[in-house]
Each structure stands twice: as C-alpha cells, then as structure tokens.
C-alpha cells in the first residue's frame, strides 16, 4: 500500500510539472518537460505493473532526482539569493544552453557596473534584452537593467528600458526602490501597488518592505513610516538593525529638517556598526552630505497614490500574513515535532502498530468507544502505521497548517486540529463497525479545511484566480484521496471526510464569533 501511495504522489507531481512546463510554451523549458515526462511515464508503468520491484525503485529514484529535489532546492534558493552560486552547480539543467550563457554574462555585467564600466555593461544588456530566456534569468536581467539606470541617475530610463520586464514582481520591487532613490516616489509607489495584485512569495517579503520604506523616506513621509512600523512591527523586525531609524532620518532630510534627522541617523549608525560596517559607512556618508538630500515638496499625485497603496496593503493584510516568514507558528511546529518525535521513539524501540505495548493507545474502533476507551480518540492522532504515513501527514500539516495559524491564530488552529482529529476518528469508528484507524490524518484534514475557509472569509479584490487555483488544488487532493480509498482498504476515507467536515464546521463558528487576526 505504501509503495502505491508513493507512486501516486510522484505521478501527481510529475503530471502537474509537465503540464505547467507545456503551458509556458517556453523553449527553454523543453529539457525539464522531457524529464518530467519520463518520470510520469515511469509512474504510470509502475502502477500498471503487478510486481513493484525494480521499476518501482527506478521511478522513486527518478522522481527524487528529477522532480522533488530540483523543485525543493529551487524554492530554497528563491528564498535565499546567497545560494545562487551553489544552484549553478546543483541544478545545471535550469540554465542549459542559452540560459546558462545569459546568466554568466549578466554576472560579468554586474562586475562592470561595480567598476564603473557602464558602456560595457550596456552592451551585454542590449545583447540579451530581446532574447527569449527562462523566468529566473529574466529576473536577473531586469534587476541588472534597473541597477544600470540607477547608476546613470536616470529614472526615466528605469521605466522605459525595464518596461518589458516590469510584469515580474522582483523587477518591480527593484525598480520601485531605484525610483525612490532617484527622487521619484510617485512612480515608485505605483509600481509597489502593482506588486500587491496577489500574495507575495516569501523571498520577496523583505525587499518589498525595504522598497516601501525607501519610497516613504524619499517622499519625506515620516508619518507613514511610523504607521508601517506600528501596524506591521513583526515583519519590520526582520529588517536589518538600524534600518527604520535610517529611513526616518532620510524622511526628515527629504523635508529639509537636517537638525531632527541627525539623531535618527546617529542611532542608525550605532545600530549597524557592529553587524554591518559597510551599512554604517553608508549612513555616515548620508550624514556628511545631509544638505544635498533636501527634496522638493511632495506632489498631490504621490499623496493620492500613497493613500490608495495603504488601502490595498490593508486589504491584502491577511494574505501577506499567511505567507510571512516573520509570523511564528508555535502550535503547528509543536504538533509536527510531537508527531515526528513519537514516530522516531517508536521506531527506536522497535515497536509496531501490532505491538502489545502500543495496543492500548492505537486502533480506534467501534468496540473501543463502546468500552468507554475514549482516550484512544486522542492518542491515536499521534501514532502512525509507518514512516511514510507520518511523513505524508507531517508534510501536509506543515504546508497548510502554518499559513492557517498565521491568519486564524494559534488557539484557533489547536482547537480545530484536536477537535477534527478526535471527531474524525469517532466518525470512522461509527462508520466502520469491524475496522480500526490510527494517524493524524483526521486532524490534518480539519486544518486543511480551516485553510480553505480563509478564502471564503477574505474575498479580496483581484485574488479570484489565486483563490480558485488554490481551492481547485485542494479539491483535487480530496478527490484523489477518495479515489485511492476505492483501491486501498487501508485508507480511512470516513475519518478523512469526518475530520474535514468537523474542521469546516468549527472554522465557520470561529469566523462567526471571532474574526481571524488581521
């Protein structure tokens, strides 16, 4: 049974990636499309083969090497740009052929800009600006264009030359910050508003926040800097030390108030001197050239755009919180730790679900409930039938539980997980008179239901496609689970559906009596 579940998971991921690569119609994706297609074909053959031996392991190895490992490493690398050089060694097929050549020359162009050789860098930009490249390489090219225009102190060039790439949010954020530094906060705030058309990925969270504060500082908008720090203090804490005081000082300089700006800049210098000497030098440079940072009065266009941007940011607050790295999720972290820890202890003690030592805590069935052994409804949630069982449950809980906790709160998620887990096991016991069930799946389905209800609670403008895509994905998971239960007797569909229904009911009650935290 566990082998077939592994094959189903590999098949689903390979099918999704193949479909996504084909839809992009990007010639640079052909190598990945072929690889995903090979894994997809192997998974289908393995499912059609009665004896899952060598073919099964060939599929698993191919799935790990060509699907799971590259995709997961790509996610990790996208959240930490310092790993990009390592990515060039680990994931060479992301940059085969033309992509690899372009990425190498973009690195050379950055070196030219750092050396002041702007013309040499511009020749490289002109070479690749109209060439079809993969999404990741286009991001790097767009940021290079923005950097080059910023060095030339030409904000119009930022908008004109980067126009073909301004649909990419990485480039939009870089361009907004460059425009702010080039004394054009009105255009910068419009670019930032475009970045909030859908939730921000985690790797863009801090660059977006830094660009936002930089725009406010360029406009001399100290009030909105302080408002942002008060409304979103958790995320602002992720900024480098001294950053807020630096932008406060810059905002005062933009209004010509050098005397009031000096204390903020002095504090910023002291806060950054230990951790980032280079940043401290930059702050001292601003202090030394304070007179040159005076700006003209802010236009009415900026005020209107900033008001609209703040309104959109507040409207998007639940979605920004949902995927924020700055908001901790202690409940889900604790549950996953306990579930995995118990599984490790059980494995080290060489115990199995059939062991007499675990019998009093496992196997929730109608007879156990009839004998008033209700504690099994709770204990069975933390015990599993094998390594794959606990791995799948912990992964799904981690994926959907953390975003749900960031929106609904720790207490809400804990209540839904425990009530759905025990309620799902109870429904399973009543449904299957002569069967038993264990595992955290019932509680996991309740948390998934709570996650889905976030899209019902917050119908934010412009997120219809994102909401529909996510809910469609969750629906496919549920349908796949039901389909698997028709062929595998060991999958407890009654418990899963029961946990899902309990989670939906509790989520609706929480939504009615206690709004999710903004």
Structure in words:
- The protein has helices spanning 2-24, 30-48, 54-79, 84-90, 98-114, 118-128, 135-151, 155-161, 169-181, 185-194, 205-218, 222-231, 233-236, 243-254, 258-273, 277-288, 300-315, 317-322, 330-348, 366-370, 376-379, 387-408, 410-431, 441-457, 464-487, 493-513.
- The relative contact order is 0.06.
- Mean pLDDT is 75; it is low at 75-81, 88-95 and 363-367.
- The two termini are 43 Å apart.
- Helices cover 72% and strands 0% of the residues.
- With 518 residues, it is mostly helical.
- It folds into three domains: 2-82; 198-327, no CATH class; 330-513, Rhomboid-like (Rhomboid-like fold, Up-down Bundle).
- The protein is globular and about 80 Å long.
- It has 26 helices and no strands.
Return the string of H and E elements. Answer: HHHHHHHHHHHHHHHHHHHHHHHHHH
Low-confidence stretches: 75-81, 88-95, 363-367
CATH architecture tag of the largest domain: Up-down Bundle
CATH homologous superfamily placement of the largest domain: Rhomboid-like
What's the multimeric state? single chain
Count of individual domains: 3
Tally of alpha and pi helices? 26
Structural class by SSE content: mainly alpha
Major sheet: none
In whole angstroms, the N-to-C terminal distance is 43 Å
Remind me, CATH topology of the largest domain? Rhomboid-like fold
Estimate what percentage of residues fall within beta strands. under 5%
Principal-axis shape: globular
Residues in helices, as a percent range: over 70%
Q: Averaged pLDDT, please?
A: 75
Total beta strands: 0
Rg of Cα set? 27 Å
């Amino acid at each position: 049974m566990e082998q077939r579940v592994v094959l189903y998971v590999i098949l689903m991921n390979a099918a999704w990636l193949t479909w996504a690569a084909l839809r992009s119609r990007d010639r640079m994706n052909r190598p990945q499309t072929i690889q995903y297609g090979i894994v997809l074909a192997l998974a289908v053959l393995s499912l059609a083969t009665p004896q899952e031996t060598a073919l099964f392991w060939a599929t698993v190895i191919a799935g790990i090497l060509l699907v799971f490992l590259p995709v997961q490493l790509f996610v990790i690398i996208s959240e930490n740009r310092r790993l990009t050089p390592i990515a060039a060694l680990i994931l060479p097929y992301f940059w085969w052929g033309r992509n690899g050549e372009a990425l190498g020359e973009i690195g050379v162009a950055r070196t030219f800009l750092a050396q002041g050789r702007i013309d040499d860098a511009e020749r490289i930009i002109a070479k690749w600006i109209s060439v079809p490249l993969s999404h990741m390489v286009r991001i790097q090219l767009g940021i290079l264009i923005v950097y080059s225009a910023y060095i030339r102190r030409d904000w119009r060039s930022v908008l004109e030359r980067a126009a073909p790439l301004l649909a990419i949010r990485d480039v939009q954020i870089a361009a907004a910050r460059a425009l702010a530094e080039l004394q054009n906060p009105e255009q910068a705030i419009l670019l930032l508003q475009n970045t909030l058309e859908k939730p921000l990925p985690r790797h863009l969270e801090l660059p977006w926040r830094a660009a936002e504060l930089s725009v406010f500082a360029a406009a001399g908008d100290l009030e909105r800097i302080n408002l942002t720090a008060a409304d979103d203090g958790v995320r602002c804490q992720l900024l480098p030390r001294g950053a807020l005081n630096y932008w406060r000082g810059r905002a005062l300089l933009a209004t010509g108030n050098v005397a009031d700006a000096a204390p903020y800049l002095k504090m910023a210098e002291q806060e950054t001197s230990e951790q980032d000497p280079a940043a401290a030098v930059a702050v001292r440079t601003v202090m030394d050239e304070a007179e040159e940072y005076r700006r003209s009065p802010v236009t009415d266009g900026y005020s209107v755009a900033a008001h609209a941007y703040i309104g959109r940011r507040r409207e998007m607050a639940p979605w920004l919180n949902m995927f924020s790295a700055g908001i901790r999720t202690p409940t889900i972290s604790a549950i996953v730790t306990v579930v995995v820890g118990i599984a490790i202890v059980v494995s080290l003690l060489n115990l199995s679900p059939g062991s007499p030592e675990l019998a009093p805590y496992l196997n929730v069935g109608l007879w156990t409930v009839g004998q008033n052994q209700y504690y099994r409804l709770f204990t069975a949630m933390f015990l599993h039938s094998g390594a794959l069982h606990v791995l799948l449950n912990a992964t799904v809980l981690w994926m959907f539980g953390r975003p749900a906790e960031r929106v609904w709160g720790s207490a809400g998620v804990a209540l839904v997980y425990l009530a759905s887990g025990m309620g799902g096991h109870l429904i399973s016991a009543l449904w299957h008179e002569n069967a038993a069930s264990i595992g955290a799946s019932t509680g996991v389905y309740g948390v998934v239901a709570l996650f889905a209800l976030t899209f019902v609670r917050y119908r934010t403008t412009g997120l219809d496609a994102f909401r529909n895509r996510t809910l469609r994905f969750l629906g496919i998971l549920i349908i796949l689970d039901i389909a698997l239960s028709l062929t595998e007797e060991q999958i407890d569909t009654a418990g899963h559906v029961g946990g899902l229904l309990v989670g939906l009911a509790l989520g609706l009650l929480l939504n009615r009596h206690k709004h999710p935290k903004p």
